[in-house]
Amino acid sequence: MEIINKKARWIPVLAPLLLLVQACLMQEDWEVPSSECVSELSPNITLREVLDSYQGSTQEILDDWVMEAYVISSDETGNFFNTLHLQDRIADPEGGIQVEFEFRDSHLFFPPGQKVFLKLKGLFLGKSKGIFKLGSSYTSFGNLQVGRIPKHAVGNHVLKACEAPMALRPKTVAIPDLTSQPANTLVRLENLEFAQELLDSTYAQSEVPTLRRLLDCEDREISLMTSGYSDFYEKTLPAGMGPITAVYYPEGGKALLVVRSEEDLDLTAERCEELITEFTSDSLIFSELADPDNNSAARYVELFYAGDQPLSLNGWHIDRYTNDNTERGSSIDLSDITVNSGQFLLIASNAAVFQEIYGTAPDIEGGLNSPADSNGDDNLVLVDPFGTIIDIFGIIGEDGSGTAHEFEDGRAFRKEDINKANPVFDPSEWEVFNDTGASGTVNQPQRAPQDFTPGSRG
């Protein structure tokens, strides 16, 4: 009974304490930063200077630094979650950063354009997948990482300035210029549209961050990243073209855009006209094929362009059919080349040897066993982006040995008055030198460099 009586005497004491603890826990669950603003703080370091202080690994900030910045993100639609994205200026920012914190509905306290002060002492600065972050810390596999600032501590570090939110002025940039733009800053890109194959797709898959491919009117590409928890993830992508305002987020070296809501996309204009990037022409020809008798490493193929206008070789390639094979043995892609009127295109089997022997650098190195490395009894074809044979040397399926298209230890030179390609081999268009002299060719092996004329039809 005594024991029971002792326990009974504790009940009135414990009950209020338990209620107090429960109340404290519930209060902490809902604790948010004060809605009061501050006007007396003076920044003593810039965001750019903070970023420049990073030394390659997550580090605690020990100095009494105060930094000012402007909010550019919003979690109102759920596409941002427990993060606050900041840049150092309303316009033309020099730096941006991501603050990790446990704070839902932060847009009610920190709307876009809101000036904030950050008391940095005790926070950790780190970098993950190319993105600078501020927050608390945790350890993962022995490595210190930036984590979320606990909600009860947010008000100690992130303070709202008394100034009313200002209108952000995102920098208008083109896709190729994004790499020079600071990460985690607000940008605007004009004339964007979702790829044709995505027009029936939604912004994201449920509960999964999803990338959707965007193109500009010059077919340059960037991706939009959308959270599968956002309010609009199930909505169908807009089918038109127009500007997008977004946070530039180059995660892991991949340029990404993250919008705050659907309203950041204004894709209502007519889609871009189809961009034609592949062209054909019969003015690009084989002009010389070389297999020097004294140096097989000095082999090359020369093309000549007789057209009037520049020609993009996007999709063009040279194929080699070795000996009597009817299957392509090797190929050289010419897609990165644009040729101008009267230009030669020199393709060496070995660039270093070519430059040493002929005194000039080739445009392309084909490599060993490539079309530029033929030993004179193979067949070469020039193919346009549409799979059409534009020009040819030899007859596919016929070994060149002892024929009118053998240039072993020699040279095949296109006559100077031939400026149009021919998809059917015509020996009368060529002067062929070799070590046999068969079928109307010249039995006269050629030596490099004196018997060859790379870059000239003379």
Write a structural description.
By secondary structure, the chain is mainly beta. It folds into three domains: 114 residues, Beta Barrel (OB fold (Dihydrolipoamide Acetyltransferase, E2P)); 94 residues, OB fold (Dihydrolipoamide Acetyltransferase, E2P) (Beta Barrel); 160 residues, Sandwich (Immunoglobulin-like). The protein is 11% helix and 29% strand. The protein contains four helices and 28 strands. Strands 1, 2, 3, 4, 5, 6, 7, 8 and 9 form a nine-stranded mixed beta sheet that branches. It has a seven-stranded mixed beta sheet with strand order 23-22-17-16-26-27-28, with no helix packed on it. Helix 4 links the parallel strand 22 and strand 23. The termini are far apart.
Short description:
This is Lamin tail domain-containing protein. The chain is mostly beta strands and 458 residues long.
Structural domains: how many: 3
Structural class: mainly beta
| Assembly state | single chain
Sheet bearing the most strands, described?
Answer: 9 strands, mixed
For the record, what CATH class of the largest domain applies?
A: Mainly Beta
Distance between the termini: 122 Å
* DSSP E strands, number: 28
CATH architecture of the largest domain: Sandwich
The radius of gyration over CA amounts to 34 Å
Helix content: 10-25%
Number of helices: 4
User: Beta fraction of the residues?
Assistant: 25-35%
Mean pLDDT reading? 91
Q: What fold name stands as the CATH topology of the largest domain?
A: Immunoglobulin-like
List the uncertain runs.
1-31
Name of the CATH superfamily of the largest domain: Lamin Tail domain
Global geometry: elongated
